[in-house]
Prior knowledge:
- With 68 residues, the chain is mostly helical.
- The model has no long low-confidence stretch (mean pLDDT 84).
- 72% of the residues lie in helices and 0% in strands.
Amino acid sequence: MAGFPGYSALAPKTKNLIMAGGLTGFVFGVYYYTMRAVGGSDELQVAIDKFEDAKRSSEAEASLEPKP
């Protein structure tokens, strides 16, 4: 593997810090992308709210009906 010129001349601790920085940047990039993709729409929350409203109204209607 050719690698980057001058990378092999660095101390092992420096190589580890460079690798840690790259991996940390990658993880935060994936996290940011995921949060933007998931948090972009509230379609699921709107559907949940509609379902809960329908459930409440049907429960209210059931409690108002006279029991035989």
